[in-house]
Amino acid sequence: MGNLIRIFRHIVLLSCITFITACGNKGPVRLPVVPLPATVQAPEMRQQGDALLLSWQLPSKNQDGSPLEQPPIVDIYRMTYDPQDDCPECLDRSSLLVSINPQLPKPAQQVDKRYLLHDRPLQPGTGYQYKFITRNQDGEQSRPIILRQPYLEPLQPPQQVVATAHDRSVSLQWQAPQLAEGDSLLGYFVYRHLDSKTSPFPLNSKPLQQEKFEDFSLENGTRYHYRVRALVKRGNLQLEGLASPALNVIPKAGI
Fold first, then answer.
1. Contact, 176 vs 155, CB < 8 A?
2. In the predicted model, is pLDDT for residue 191 greater than 70?
3. Angle, CA 231 vertex, CA 229 and CA 236 arms, to 5°
4. Which residues contact 144 (CB under 8 A, 6 or more apart)?
5. What is the 3-state secondary structure (H, E, C) of the chain?
6. Tens digits of per-residue pLDDT, 140-166?
7. Cβ contacts of 1 within 8 Å, gap of 6 or more
8. pLDDT value, residue 200
9. To 5 degrees, how large is the angle CA 86–CA 88–CA 92?
10. pLDDT attached to residue 29
11. pLDDT value for 28
12. Per-residue pLDDT averaged across 4-20, rounded?
């Protein structure tokens, strides 16, 4: 469809040039410039459990600063590489992984202005490169944005996680996971979601330094689901480990 649109546009432009020439106008003919979409904004990539989590925001303008007529499609390409023989400038062997329509973003998830995509299953010890290209309704493309990192064996979840319900609050406790050799524990993230809504973001913005957490200002009688992940530093990467099994808790008055 994009090629057909380009062909039609060129035919129209050639017709306009012929008409202008026939009218006797002199001087060089300036073809109208079709604005190119800007690239994705604030792209990020990190390992979360057994997946690589990609996130980004859509551009608000074209490359020339003109307003977008409608949100662009985001094409995401993926290729693998050997982290032991890494060559970012080598031949691009990437293939299309997914195209995300902002109006119907699945398999991505939209949270406020950000889009998130978990890529799995992956092979531990393999490097993964992702190339983001936005594409407008005319098929015009932005310059690519590339993110890459190796996928490592995921960290095991925290152990013996216990959740206790209170009046409008929940307390959590757990034990540290078994770390791999060379891992440095940075802390923990606690995730909470309701039956009808899952949040990809933890409740705490900074890693917890203790194996406990208090969640306040909850609704009594509402079922909450909690998971805990550990965060470690392995080499020059920060890895978020596998999530603990979900614990279902219902705060109640008088507990």
1. no
2. yes
3. 150
4. 39, 131, 132, 133
5. CHHHHHHHHHHHHHHHHHHHHHCCCCCCCCCCCCCCECCCEEEEEEEECCEEEEEEECCCEECCCCECCCCCEEEEEEEEECHHHCCCCCCCCCEEEEEEECCECCCCEEECCEEEEEECCCCCCEEEEEEEEEECCCCCECCCEEEEEEECCCCCCCEEEEEEEECCEEEEEEECCCCCCCCEEEEEEEEEEECCECCCCCCCCCCECCCEEEECCCCCCCCEEEEEEEEEEECCEEEECCCCCCEEECCCCCC
6. 999 999 999 999 999 999 999 999 999
7. 139
8. 83
9. 110
10. 56
11. 59
12. 47
Give the pLDDT score at 44.
97
Contact 47, 240 (CB under 8 A): yes
Span between the terminal Cα atoms of the chain, in Å: 62
Tokens representing 218 are 């909850």
Q: Say if residue 71 is preceded by a cis peptide, omega within 30 of 0.
A: no
Cα–Cα distance measured from residue 55 to residue 45, given in angstroms and rounded to the nearest whole number: 7
Six token digits for residue 237: 């990467």
CB of 150 closer than 8 Å to CB of 126: yes
What pLDDT, in 10s, does the model give residues 205-249? Answer: 999 999 999 999 999 999 999 999 999 999 999 999 999 999 999
Q: Which two tokens stand for residue 84?
A: 């032991």
